[in-house]
Amino acid sequence: MRLDTLTLLAALTPYALGYPKFTTPAAGASVAAGTISVAWENSGSPAISTLSTYTLTLIVGGNDAATQLPLTAIEADGDFTTGNTASGAVTAGLAGSTTNGFFLKMVSVSSDGGTITTYSDRFTMTGMTGTTAATYLTAVTALDGATAGPALVDDVSTDTATTAAAAAADEYTVPYNLQTGLTKYAPMQPIPGTKITAKTYSAMYPTSAYTVATTYLAAASIVITVTESQTFSASSMENTAAAVANPTDDGSDMSKFLRRWKD
């Protein structure tokens, strides 16, 4: 039986995913360091109301995850019920003013389970006084002026355990000094390589601002730091090779040497 095209589309519509589509900042816009304002609208069906909470992070770098550097959390614990806008502070020293080198990453938690990650178009942060590492600058240059951000990542699942795991995993991508709350998250410890290939060095993350204490500070408020589980593993096995036989008295110099210690 042949289905009419419109009938097929109507049947699939209830299962299409609604997600936030950024409207501000616009593609190729110039945004001054200081306070950044963000806005989005619904795209798709069902409505964006099927999403509950979100995190919103400013990123610099390329469209590949390996070339993206999180700079600051614009909203670390957002709630879609409060509206479709957010704002946050961007410190000028976090990076340099790379043309179309910046974009926003929003990780939204679905009430049905799982997460959906959306990205804004690229824009320029002006008035930035910091330095952006070569890895991220090279990735931006390779885009040749394109303003499209990374592609949407759909990890929506009906498994609530998957939802919790995905939400927790995203916490590890937020720079330590930008996290809030009683629990903080540290990324997985790296495993050293088998050889040194780097010829030069560059900082993985921007330097952190600090204030010199002139009076006694309050007691630490962080209860625990959770480090992402290590996925590296190693295995070993028994050496089944037979042991080498003891040396024999064959008149060699070694045999003479060993006889000296018999008494």
Automatic annotation (TrEMBL):
* Keyword DNA damage appears in the UniProt entry: no
A single GO BP term for this record reads: (1->6)-beta-D-glucan biosynthetic process
Per the database record, which ranges form the Yeast cell wall synthesis Kre9/Knh1-like N-terminal domain?
Answer: 24-124
Keywords attached to this Swiss-Prot or TrEMBL record, sorted alphabetically, are: Signal
Q: Where is the Yeast cell wall synthesis Kre9/Knh1 C-terminal domain?
A: 170-252
The UniProt record lists the keyword Signal: yes
Please indicate which superkingdom the organism of origin belongs to.
Eukaryota
Q: Which Pfam families match?
A: Kre9_KNH, Kre9_KNH1_C
Enumerate the transmembrane spans.
none
Cellular component (GO) terms are: extracellular region
Q: Where is the signal peptide?
A: 1-18
Q: What is this protein called?
A: Uncharacterized protein
